[in-house]
Design a protein that fits this description.
Blueprint: E1 6-12, E2 29-30, E3 33-34, H1 35-45, E4 50-55, H2 60-69, E5 74-77, H3 84-89, H4 92-97, E6 101-106, H5 114-125, E7 130-136, E8 145-148, E9 154-158, H6 165-168, E10 172-181, H7 182-189, H8 205-212, E11 217-221, H9 233-253, E12 257-258, E13 271-272, E14 277-278, E15 283-284, E16 288-290, E17 295-296, E18 301-302, E19 313-315, E20 320-321, E21 326-327, E22 331-333, E23 338-350, E24 355-367, E25 372-373, E26 378-380, E27 390-392, E28 397-398, E29 403-405, E30 408-410, E31 415-416, E32 421-422, E33 431-432, H10 444-453
Parallel strand pairs: 1-4, 1-6, 4-5, 7-11, 12-14, 13-16, 14-17, 15-18, 16-19, 17-20, 18-21, 19-22, 20-23, 21-23, 22-23, 23-24, 24-25, 24-27, 25-28, 26-29, 27-30, 28-31, 29-32, 31-33
Antiparallel strand pairs: 2-3, 6-10, 7-10, 8-9
Helix pairs in contact: 1-2
This protein binds uridine-diphosphate-N-acetylglucosamine and magnesium ion.
């Protein structure tokens, strides 16, 4: 079979009113990536030469997200929502330019795989004029049903609203993924009318037209999970659950132990090495790499990348994190670093063997090899206007409950006494302390207790 140039068009003009959201539907996320981001990733992986996305008027945020996922994608605006065939025609300039295969995907079907897209392209390369990806639905309600002729070719797709009682019994459903040979496509599209229950131009009518013209129309089978379309929040959660189950299985197959897999959530791009142990209730955000032999204890949140930052997080081999730790964007832990309970790290490098075992905030900091950060240490990085950095040299020892008022630097091997507020740089090897002198009053406590225990004088 000869591979032909592939144009993928993603239809995403729908507002998704059932999401009850100010955000367009395709910008909602599963596993830290927008729905359209998932679809575009599958399209790229399937080897599309060009990608065109059809959006609705005023969807500038969707346009921006498309650009972030693949620069140079063509974006077209469908001015009024007249149906899926009309949406595809909004990309007419791209269709006219293209010679080869055209595959149409929906922006709200995020679990579609590159393999299914490639199998659709194979069906076209094998001589089909139209290929429809179908699946057997447990509950077919709401989907278009695939009607076949005596030879097994697709004769038509019947939308639920137009289906007869008998046709509604059919469980073979249209996923929405359709492939076309470009030489026939525009001729078919312009022949589609809108004489149906919704008064819309249905892309699905392309099948009946092509079949009537004697062209080959075939079905490519997909699985129901992969074809899941997102129309409301419950379906969003269900798709996320499917994604997480697949990702957990892949992480475990890669040699990591998940103590209670169903309580650990990953992002689409989480990298996990061999012999990693992840305890229950751990959340991993986008852009996180966990190297081999790392232990992540219960209730830890590795934020990774958030909306404001692109910096992700890295946990190098042999490190231990948690329980109850929070690693925010820009956390970079060297080998054998220990981050203990109630420690928050943000935009900070901890070199090999550094330890912060309890109750600390380390933000905008560089912490040298083997440094020990005592319980309750805080880098005071923010003065209400600007962020400032803290430098801590290798093998430095920061006593408990120290406030390091940035910008400030602690030299290599220096010791800071517990309870200090450090506002000036400390030289390497020095001891610095800002504690008040301790005073002692001999016998004071016993006298005090006797006085307090004396019976009170009766008041009349
Ligand atoms: C569609 C199919 C149906 C299939 C189902 C699978 C048609 C006519 N029906 O129905 O056979 O079983 O998907 O989920 O194609 N869109 C636009 N502009 C429009 C209308 C839709 O861009 O004018 C986009 C939407 O954003 C969405 C996609 O096309 O991404 C599908 O539209 P939707 O209204 O959800 O179609 P369904 O009724 O689900
Ligand atoms: Mg839909």
């Amino acid at each position: 079979m000869q591979k032909r140039p592939l144009l993928i068009v993603i239809l995403a003009a729908g507002k998704g009113t059932r999401m009850k959201s100010r955000r367009p539907k395709v910008l909602h996320e599963i596993a830290g990536r927008s729905l359209i981001g998932h679809v575009m990733a599958a399209a790229k992986a399937a080897g599309a030469e060009r990608l065109a996305v059809v959006i609705g008027p005023g969807m500038d945020d969707v346009r921006a997200e498309v650009g972030r996922n693949l620069e140079g994608s063509d974006v077209f605006v469908q001015t009024s929502q007249l149906g899926t065939a009309d949406a595809l025609l909004a990309a007419r300039p791209a269709l006219e330019r293209h010679q080869g295969d055209v595959i149409v995907l929906f922006g709200d079907t995020p679990l579609i795989t590159a393999q299914t897209i490639m199998r659709t392209a194979d069906a076209l390369a094998g001589g089909a004029s139209v290929a429809v990806v179908g699946f057997e639905a447990g509950d077919p309600t709401g989907y278009g049903r695939i009607l076949r002729d005596a030879t097994g070719c697709v004769a038509a797709i019947r939308e639920e609203k137009e289906a007869s009682e008998g046709e509604r019994q059919i469980r073979l459903c249209n996923s929405g993924v359709m492939g076309f040979r470009s030489e026939h496509l525009l001729g078919i599209l312009t022949a589609i009318g809108n004489a149906n229950a919704k008064g819309e131009y249905y892309l699905t009518d392309a099948v009946e037209i092509a079949h009537g013209r004697g062209q080959r129309t075939v079905t490519v089978m997909g699985s129901e999970g992969e074809m899941m379309g997102i129309n409301d929040r419950a379906q969003l959660a269900a798709a996320d659950a499917i994604f997480q189950a697949t990702k957990r299985a892949a992480v475990m197959a890669g040699g990591a132990t998940l103590v209670a897999p169903e309580t650990v959530t990953f992002s689409h791009d989480t990298i996990v090495g061999e012999d990693v142990l992840i305890e229950p209730y751990v959340v991993i955000g986008p852009g996180v790499t966990i190297e081999s032999n790392v232990t992540i204890r219960a209730f830890t949140h590795v934020v990774g990348t958030d909306r404001k930052s692109q910096s992700g997080a890295r946990i190098s081999s042999g490190s231990e994190v948690g329980p109850f730790a929070r690693l925010r964007p820009g956390t970079n832990l060297g080998a054998n670093v220990h981050i203990g309970n109630f420690v928050e790290v943000k935009n900070a490098v901890l070199e090999d063997g550094a330890k912060a075992n309890h109750l600390s905030y380390l933000g905008d900091a560089h912490i040298g090899k083997g440094a020990n950060i005592g319980a309750g240490t805080i880098t005071c990085n923010y003065d209400g206007f600007n962020k400032h950095r803290t430098e801590i040299g290798a093998d430095a020892f920061i006593g408990s409950n120290t406030a390091l008022v940035a910008p400030v630097s602690i030299g290599e091997g220096a010791i800071v006494g517990a309870g200090s507020v450090i506002t000036k740089d400390v030289a390497g090897g020095a001891l610095a302390m800002t504690r008040a002198d301790q005073k002692e009053w001999t016998g004071w406590a016993a006298r005090f207790k006797r006085m307090m225990q004396r019976p009170k004088a009766k008041t009349a």
